[in-house]
Specification:
The complex is a heterodimer of chains A (about 775) and B (about 550).
Chain A lengths: L2 H10 L1 H5 L1 E7 L6 E2 L7 H9 L5 E2 H11 L4 E4 L6 H15 L4 E5 L3 H18 L5 E3 L6 H10 L2 E4 L1 H8 L7 H5 L1 E6 L7 H21 L4 E6 L5 H9 L4 E3 L9 E6 L3 E3 L4 E2 L2 H14 L4 E5 L2 H17 L7 E4 L5 H13 L4 E4 L14 E5 L5 H8 L9 E6 L4 H8 L1 H6 L12 H14 L2 E2 L8 H13 L3 E4 L2 E4 L18 E6 L5 E7 L3 H4 L5 E4 L2 E9 L4 E6 L4 E22 L2 E21 L5 E6 L5 E11 L4 H5 L3 H23 L6 E6 L9 E6 L7 H7 L1 H14 L13 H4 L3 H12 L14
Parallel strand pairs in A: 4-9, 4-10, 5-7, 5-8, 6-7, 8-9, 11-18, 14-16, 14-17, 15-16, 17-18, 22-26
Antiparallel strand pairs in A: 1-11, 2-3, 12-13, 19-21, 20-21, 22-23, 24-25, 25-26, 27-28, 28-29, 28-30, 30-32, 31-32
Helix pairs in contact in A: 3-6, 4-5, 10-18, 12-13, 22-24, 22-26, 24-26
Chain B lengths: L2 H10 L65 H13 L5 H10 L17 H13 L3 H9 L6 H6 L4 H4 L3 E4 L4 E10 L3 E2 L2 E2 L8 H8 L12 E8 L10 E10 L2 E8 L6 H13 L3 E4 L2 H15 L10 E4 H13 L4 H7 L14 H11 L5 H27 L9 H13 L3 H14 L4 H16 L3 H14 L4 H15 L2 H17 L8 H26 L1
Parallel strand pairs in B: 5-8, 8-9
Antiparallel strand pairs in B: 1-2, 2-7, 3-4, 5-6, 6-7
Classes of the chains: A alpha/beta (about 775), B alpha+beta (about 550).
Chain lengths: ~775, ~550
């Protein structure tokens, strides 16, 4: 049975349709093609024809022509629209003209680099020319590095490696930098917030080094659909960019369904489990041999759904290898095999975390099932893009969980379909980030007076002088020299870095490594007595040795899985600045955020009953960061004449609203800042809202928020009063389910109080 | 005060403002994009509904999108950080990350309600923390107490009382605008460095040099065109920001050994210094260094590129003595640092030598203080290093030039000579030196290796009888030695056709090692080889037996 038939069948299934809140059909779109650009080398054209490519899609042709004409480009393409040709063709074309030419490819993950290598090597072989193509990352053996440096026409790497491994050693990469003609930045939408701000500075350093060697590379960026791809690209490479979003790739008809699991307990409002509903749907697709992908929001859920589906496929009398789980923590080889299995059709159903949201090539699938809203409009479209072959109809089903945001989205499909995807933000001139890269840049090549780095020459000079005062640099005549015996790049991490990972060893098999998990996640996933699921195989953890970064596991067969509970604590360590104003006090300072896994529950497969529990004995984990917070008076409830619960709802709601507006004030990504409301904060015992930074140590957002307090509160006020919703929605304070009936009112009262506008009668506040 | 300056000052007053490296990773082994995909972000951790606390920001989305997070490059700076830590510990001070750790395990008491003071009483500490974080190198401040003598007065500094020119004899090459400081010494050829006279290096024979370096390119090595090189740098972490502030070049000229120590009085001295050196290198053919192939030369290359000065390094030959030293002495001395080789081989005993790891700091301090007195120690340390290169070159050549068995005193060293010949496939030399070794040494575990090499040397030269005799001798001294047993079994199987003897040898080896326990036993592969051979021989024996019977 094919997809079209399945869709017809679903449409006729009244039990199924009763739970749908939206059936959205996206019409098919024919291909729009263009001939190969004239400038393309005949060898390249021939190789493309050999691979079955006889013409290009319009966006490819436009991108290639623009790049060949010397423009920086940013190609925005949905999944599977052939974006790799947009950069591979101009790059290879140039290499055919000039065998000395070099190109640098940047991918955010190693998996993507690997993917790219295979694609490139295929085309190069067809052309029967020698174009050295190498990956250069932490896995590149020392013996191979020399060859990469001298013979790599195309060097495929990631921003972290460029930052800490290539730029600070540019003299041994002289061949690359002298001849660098193209820099490809794929998945540029991935570089948002702090990460993006770091990348922008790495690009500044790269351009500076290129200029030293006399090269001026052109940039080719690729982005998924976000609201402002051109802006992001221009901010990161700091040059005008030609936007190419004229997608000519064909798509078949796509059906996008919103499904809310039925209520099973009317009094408690409990709905059927989304995991079970997703499994049920996936099972029926499996029985019809339809290739599908199931997204789930956590690693544990992926394993549970995988377990159910493997059981089901066995019962059908087929190989359980038709079903695969896919998530972080699997070993790279295992993951490559699954990707290949998907492309070759040997894997029928893959259950994945958002790991497969990025552009890893797994071919196009027929159906995509999302177990829960992906969290943002952009991510949801990315995941939905995994389904949809060029000429056939495809199906996407979003199954809501009971989480408030899911319930909101499912009840308001127009919120999803009518809004543009989120925009991304980067702030290359964040002072702390810029200063840290300025140090690296000075290490790489001394600064000369009048030179600028992101800022104008005077400001650049002032920061350099500041570093002189700190004795990292020394100014002699008109040059600033690195003047310390350290290697600055190793102290700066582009990402919120986890200190390594924990490997999971099978004690029954000579300590074979079965998987890995990042250090911060280990205490909640591989604690002693946890059931660790790997491709639905169960292991029990015998011991977690955090010091040696090892978890010892042994295969078991039990009918339950385990789920840990964690307690998160926030503590103020130091107050840098505080200011009483109106009735509240705002502060900024150093915080310690600790999280401590306390206990785990044993949950039975199938029924999801709680069948026992245990304690977890592990040390708490701590992150020190900076935060900004607002303390309200202890007697807020009395002043408002309401009970404490209502104040709590208001605090929660206002915290949500502040978190929504803060990124705009400080130019960061929403994930860079977190919010927490406390009705009685430790030590001060006052109702408090904390906004704190996700990065250990922080990068200065808290201080900015402290100084922009007024503006921030005003922005929150207009967000609250301009939002047309009555009691709250994900765009302002979160849905009613999340914040309670009094959330939005309470938030308005609190924010007015903070602005010194007195206690306002909520009845008088009308949406404007 | 400019806007920027204000901002920066604001930063300085905030110890929390770091560069994101606040919680330092112990070692940047792997970077994961999203560690927050940890507990606090997983949807099951929103359990903060205790009493009156609200859990906000319900972390719904477990992000999992960066699976093979890229691994950063091997941290060249790791050693550096460790070094710094050691240094600070020796002063009873803490690094930023230690401070951080301590803070994590033992946080300061929560603040009281009555806190508000506009100026921080702990301002000084904060400043230090801040310096710690932003400058990466708090060592600057603490180093001074170690190496720095007396603080000099502002007046002395301005007058240049303790400038290099006034403290250490030498001359400025170039002019005020563009120049560097050169300290030149001419040593008479009979100047002794340890047990060797410098001039004796002129007698070094190229064949011995090429032999000890295992480098045929050095076959025409001529000490008169060699330049002995060593550098003192601003760090060991490598990368383009490390510079060589003191470069020493020694060479024979006009009946003397001349040492030119070129030292930078500040960063702008580098360019003229490199021009001087480039010219000097042009006049020579071979560089002699200690570990220069992996350290000094790449660093020099980087410096020349950074200053856009052509450097003909590709046409220079290079004798890196560290590799030779390791071949001769690694087994006996383990530690083959130049310092240890000086002590153990050349009988040089340095007194009051400046520890190498303090050298960068001493130079940095000089830049700040303009007091060159502490540099004297660095300069004499560096001088010793280069003179020792000459000694070592000469000593190696002398030892190799002596009749077999007489050059080196230690048995291990004599055996090392045999080993190097063996590695270079000089089988005739292996026989000469090996026999000399065995004549001198009768009972020593060292004989085993020597006999083994000798046995193989005979085999390669197809001197079968000598080879057989050697294996038998080896077996006599070391019963059932696997190599000898194997070789002798092969010999009997294929040459003498004494299958019974061959079978016996295999059996002996197998039983001998089967009774032994643990690591002393045969490796699995070796045992398999013996068994395999034994089976084949027994088959042959049977066949032959059958033929005989017939």
């Amino acid at each position: 049975m094919n997809v079209a038939q399945t869709i017809d069948k679903l449409r006729a299934d009244s039990d199924f349709c009763r739970n749908l809140t939206k059936w959205h059909t996206i019409p098919p779109r024919p291909a729009r093609c263009a001939a190969f650009p004239e400038a393309l080398h005949p060898k390249l054209k021939a190789a493309l024809r050999k691979r079955g490519v006889t013409e290009l899609y319009t966006h490819q042709a436009e991108a290639i022509a623009a790049t060949l004409a010397g423009e920086h480009t940013c190609v925005v393409t949905p999944t599977a629209s052939g974006k790799t040709l947009c950069y591979n063709l101009p790059v290879l074309n140039r290499m055919l003209e000039n065998p000395q030419a070099r190109a640098l490819y940047l991918f955010p993950t190693k998996a993507l680099s690997q993917d790219q290598m295979n694609e490139l090597k295929g085309t190069i072989e067809e052309m029967e020319v020698k174009i050295g193509t190498y990956t250069f990352d932490g896995d590149t053996p020392a013996s191979a590095r020399k060859a990469v440096r001298s013979a790599g026409n195309i060097v495929v790497t990631n921003p972290d490696m460029l930052h800490a491994g290539i730029l600070p050693h540019h003299t041994i990469w002289i061949r690359l930098f002298e001849n660098l003609e193209y820099v490809v930045i794929d998945e540029i939408h991935h570089y948002r917030g702090v990460f993006g701000s770091h990348l922008a500075n790495v690009v500044r350093r790269l351009k500076r080094i290129c200029a030293f060697y006399g090269s001026h590379p052109k940039f080719i960026c690729c982005s998924a659909t976000i609201a402002n791809p051109q802006e992001i690209a221009e901010r990161i490479i700091e040059a005008p960019v030609r936007l190419i979003d004229n997608n000519g790739a064909p798509t078949g008809e796509k059906h996008f369904l919103f499904y809310n699991p039925p209520v099973v307990n009317r009094e408690l409002g409990i709905r059927k489990s989304s995991v079970k509903e997703a499994s049920r749907l996936a099972k029926s697709l499996l029985s019809r041999n339809i290739q599908s992908i199931v997204f789930a929001r956590s690693r544990l859920r992926v394993e549970i759904i995988t377990t159910y589906l493997k059981d089901a496929v066995r019962k059908m009398g087929k190989s359980h290898h038709l079903v695969k789980g896919y998530r972080g923590g699997y070993l790279p080889t295992e993951r490559r095999e699954i990707e290949r299995g998907l492309r070759e059709g040997k894997v029928l159903t893959v259950v994945s975390t958002n790991a497969l949201e990025l552009g890893i090539d797994i071919g196009a699938l027929d159906v995509c099932i999302m177990t829960g809203y992906a969290g943002s409009i952009a991510s949801t479209w990315q995941q939905a893009g995994r389904a949809g072959r060029r000429n056939t109809v495809s199906l996407v089903v979003l199954i809501a969980t009971s989480a408030p945001i899911d319930q909101y989205i499912i009840a308001h499909p127009e919120y999803f379909f009518e809004q543009p995807p989120e925009s991304a933000t980067v702030d290359p001139n964040n002072l702390i980030i810029l200063t840290s890269h300025l140090k690296c840049a000075a290490f790489e090549i001394p600064f000369v007076e009048g030179e600028s780095f992101g800022l104008d020459p005077t400001s650049t000079g002032e920061i350099l002088d500041y570093l002189v005062d700190n004795r990292v640099l020394r100014k002699v005549r008109n040059k600033w020299h690195w003047s310390a015996d350290t290697y600055p790049a190793s102290d700066i991490s582009l990402r919120t870095a986890a200190p390594g990972n924990v490997v999971i060893l099978d004690t029954s098999d000579n300590g074979r490594v079965i998987g890995e998990i990042d250090f911060f996640a280990a205490p909640t996933e591989v604690y002693q007595n946890a059931i660790y699921l790997h491709q639905s195989v169960q292991y029990t953890i015998e011991e977690l040795d955090l010091e040696d970064r090892k978890a010892y596991a042994r295969p078991v067969e039990v009918d339950y899985y385990t789920d840990a509970e964690t307690k998160v604590d926030l503590r103020v360590l130091d107050v840098f600045e505080s200011k009483p104003e109106n009735d509240v006090e705002r502060c900024c300072g150093e915080l310690s955020v600790t999280w401590l896994p306390t206990m785990y529950k044993k949950i039975k497969f199938g029924s999801h009953e709680n069948v026992g529990s245990g304690e977890i004995h592990l040390p708490e984990q701590t992150m020190h960061t900076t935060g900004y917070w607002i303390e309200f008076p202890e007697d807020t409830a009395e002043r408002f004449g309401v009970n404490k619960e209502e104040v709590g709802e208001g605090l929660n709601a206002l915290a949500s609203a502040l978190k929504q507006v803060a990124p705009v004030q400080v130019l960061c990504d929403p994930s860079d800042i977190r919010a927490q409301a406390m009705l009685r904060a430790p030590a001060t015992e006052t109702p408090t809202i904390f906004l704190y930074e996700s990065y250990p140590g922080g990068v200065g957002f808290s201080e900015k928020l402290f100084h922009h307090h007024q503006r921030l509160l005003e922005a929150a006020t207009s967000l609250l009063s301009d939002c047309p919703c009555a009691e709250g929605c994900p765009s302002c304070v979160g849905s009613v389910l999340e914040t309670g009936l009094h959330g939005k009112d309470g938030a308005l009262k609190l924010v007015k109080m903070a602005l010194g506008q007195g206690v306002v009668d909520p009845a008088k506040v009308e949406p404007t | 005060m400019s806007e920027m300056k204000k901002k920066l000052d604001a930063l300085l007053n905030m110890p929390g403002m770091s560069t994101g490296a606040r919680i330092k990773k112990p070692a940047p082994e792997s970077i994961d994009d999203d560690p927050l995909d940890g507990p606090e972000y997983s949807e099951r951790s929103a359990h903060l509904n205790e009493n009156d606390e609200w859990a906000m920001d319900p972390p719904l989305y477990e992000s999992d999108d960066d699976l093979d997070a890229p691994t950063p490059p091997p941290a060249a700076a790791k050693a550096d950080v460790a070094k710094l830590r050691d240094l600070l510990q020796s002063k009873g001070l803490k690094t930023g990350s230690e401070w951080q750790q301590e803070r994590a395990t033992n946080p300061p008491p929560p603040r009281r309600k009555t806190r508000r003071s506009e100026t921080s009483p702990s301002g000084v500490n904060r400043l230090r923390d801040m310096t710690d974080l932003l400058s990466v190198s708090p060592a600057h401040d603490f180093e001074q107490s170690f190496s720095a003598p007396p603080l000099i007065t502002q007046e002395e500094r301005e007058d240049g009382t303790f400038e290099l020119e006034n403290v250490i004899p030498g001359e400025v090459i170039g002019d005020d605008e563009c120049g560097f400081y050169l300290i030149r010494h001419d040593y008479p050829l009979d100047h002794r460095q340890g047990i060797v006279e410098l001039g004796s290096a002129l007698q070094s024979k190229s064949k011995h040099i090429a032999f000890s370096a295992c480098d045929p390119a050095l076959d025409d090595f001529d000490p008169r065109t060699a330049v002995f090189v060593d550098t003192e740098t601003t760090g060991l972490s490598g990368g383009t920001g490390t510079i060589a502030f003191l470069i020493g070049v020694g060479y024979f000229i006009d009946g003397a050994f001349r040492l030119d120590q070129c030292i930078m009085r500040d960063f702008d001295d580098e360019e003229p210094m490199l021009h001087y050196l480039a010219e000097l290198f042009d006049k020579h053919e071979t560089l002699v260094s200690y570990n220069g192939k992996s350290f000094d030369l790449p660093l020099l290359r980087t410096r020349f590129i950074q200053n856009r000065i052509p450097f003909r390094d590709s046409s220079l030959k290079h004798l890196d003595l560290v590799h030779a030293a390791r071949r001769f002495w690694k087994q006996r001395l383990k530690d083959c640092s130049l310092g240890n080789i000086e002590r153990e081989i050349l009988s040089i005993h340095r007194e009051g030598d400046v520890p190498s790891h303090l050298i960068p700091q001493i130079w940095f301090n000089y830049l700040e203080q303009r007091d060159a007195r502490p540099l004297e120690g660095v300069i004499s340390h560096h001088e010793m290093d280069i003179l020792s290169l000459v000694s070592l070159t000469s000593w190696m050549s002398q030892c190799l030039d002596a009749p077999p068995g007489q050059g080196f005193a230690h048995l291990e060293d004599k055996l090392a000579v045999v080993r190097i010949h063996y590695k270079q496939k000089n089988y005739d030399e292996v026989m000469v030196h090996g026999r000399a070794f065995l004549d001198e040494v009768d009972e020593s575990p060292l004989c085993r290796e020597c006999l083994e090499m000798l046995g193989f040397a005979y085999k390669r030269r197809e001197q079968w009888e000598d080879s057989q005799a050697t294996w038998e001798k080896l077996l006599e001294a070391f019963p059932a030695d696997p190599v000898a047993s194997h070789e002798l079994a092969k010999h009997h199987e294929h040459r003498t056709r004494d299958l019974a003897a061959a079978a016996r040898l295999c059996k002996e080896a197998l039983t001998h090692y089967a009774t032994r326990e643990g690591s002393a036993g045969l490796e699995r592969n070796e045992a398999r080889a013996f068994r395999h051979r034994l089976e084949r021989i027994e088959k042959k024996l049977k066949k032959r037996g059958g033929e005989l019977e017939f």
